[in-house]
Specification:
Blueprint: E1 12-16, H1 49-62, E2 66-70, H2 80-88, E3 95-100, H3 105-115, E4 119-123, H4 129-136, H5 142-154, E5 161-166, H6 175-182, E6 188-193, H7 211-221, E7 224-227, E8 237-241, E9 247-251, E10 264-267, E11 272-274, E12 283-284, H8 286-290, H9 295-307, H10 313-318, H11 332-335
Parallel strand pairs: 1-2, 1-10, 2-3, 3-4, 4-5, 5-6, 6-9
Antiparallel strand pairs: 7-8, 8-9, 10-11, 11-12
The structure holds S-adenosylmethionine (SAM) and iron/sulfur cluster (2 copies).
């Protein structure tokens, strides 16, 4: 097992399987910047399934146990279920999850289950149709995602995680409705503090609703109590309803950063390794892969990248003078959440 400069092992791999998306969430891929003429990566730049699968085999040997497929919108990657099936055949990978906006999930849920996907996370920032239409940038209605949730449950993904990014003055007035809707269903809504990922979402601390406020709003209506984390390094703080009707999570990446336990490595669509969500530079792994490097040589590159890792961006953002904040941070849709 490899460790970085802060003694953190690598355990979780997030793979962005496409940079494309059918939504235009203003905080990730604003419609005015990503219009009809925007050029996404050409097919030749994107890692194919054999390449991804070979890399995951190597990552597994270095300590990776969990894989999450993300993007862009991962369900827009043709035959993504084939990749799931290839990855689920790798010994040592205990968990394969996927994060989706849900728009085409109704067509894919069964196939994903059959292919061996362990868990699904569905993003849904609000149940208010007007708010949601603005937040997906395409005027799509909440109903589409609610139907996808039903399909996913019928396909055997139960319970689900529901991700909701909270922005002040945009959807914070709908937090309690989201909690109410999923209370008693077994699904876990995870309220996420709006983060300064990338460079295009005009992030400002004023737009963040601190975890404490989110908790307070829900607790005032449905009393909550804290629950121990499921495992060290879990990103969400867990709370359960005192009346036994389930739990929620709050991801306080801005106000209570958790870099000390960060075991996540990210692989971009075009085959670069990023050791932090807020990094500006990645390590190109596609070139050696395509130039005929052996597994050992690739393992060396990955191990070298991880063992030199010094990232603690979120902690620096709130505590020290940020030393590594760059104007060129990678965008969220290129490496996934
Ligand atoms: N397209 C899929 C989706 O939206 O679920 C997967 C990729 S998306 C980049 C992964 C997650 O990151 C989503 O839950 C999304 O809401 C979240 N996200 C995107 N931009 C964010 C930001 N600036 N702050 C916090 N979360 C963000
Ligand atoms: Fe697409 Fe997900 Fe980004 Fe929204 S958050 S634009 S759904 S990749
Ligand atoms: Fe990990 Fe970077 Fe996020 Fe810190 S800021 S938790 S190091 S991804």
């Amino acid at each position: 097992m490899i460790k970085d400069t802060f003694n953190r092992p690598v355990k979780d791999l997030r793979i962005s399987v496409t940079d494309r998306c059918n939504f235009r969430c203003p905080y990730c891929m604003p419609a005015d910047l990503y219009g009809e003429k925007y050029t996404f990566l050409p097919k030749s730049d994107i890692l194919d399934f054999e390449e991804v699968s070979r890399l995951v085999n190597i990552f597994e040997g270095l300590g990776v146990e969990k894989v999450r497929l993300t993007g862009g919108e991962p369900l827009m990657r043709e035959n993504v279920e084939k990749l799931v099936s290839m990855l689920s055949g790798i010994d040592g990978i205990k968990d394969i999850a996927l994060t989706t906006n849900g728009y085409i999930l109704h067509k894919k849920a069964k196939a994903l289950k059959k292919a061996g996907l362990s868990r699904l996370t569905i993003s849904l920032d609000s149940l208010d149709d007007e708010v949601f239409k603005k937040l997906n940038g395409r005027e799509y209605s909440v109903d589409i995602v609610l139907k996808a949730i039903d399909k996913a449950v019928k396909a055997g993904f139960d319970p689900l995680k529901i991700n909701a990014v909270i922005q002040k003055g945009i959807n914070d007035h709908t937090i309690v409705d989201l909690a109410r809707h999923f209370r008693g269903t077994g699904h876990i809504v995870r309220f996420i503090e709006f983060m300064d990922v990338g460079t295009i979402n005009s992030w400002n601390f004023e737009h963040v609703v601190p975890a404490g406020e989110i908790l307070g709003m829900i607790d005032a209506v449905f009393p909550l109590e804290p629950v121990e984390k499921n495992y060290p390094g879990e990103v969400a703080n867990r709370y359960r309803y005192k009346d036994g009707k389930g739990e929620i999570g709050i991801i306080a990446s801005v106000t209570k950063p958790f870099c000390g336990n960060c075991t996540r490595l990210r692989l971009s669509t075009d085959g670069r390794l990023f050791t932090c969500l807020f990094a500006s530079r990645g390590t190109d792994i596609r070139k050696p892969l395509r130039d005929g490097a052996s597994d050992n040589e690739i393992r060396e590159i990955i191990a070298h990248t991880w063992s030199n890792r010094t990232d603690r961006y979120s902690e620096e953002r709130t505590t020290d003078k940020p030393s590594k904040i760059s104007a060129k941070k990678i965008e969220m849709y290129q490496i996934g959440g």
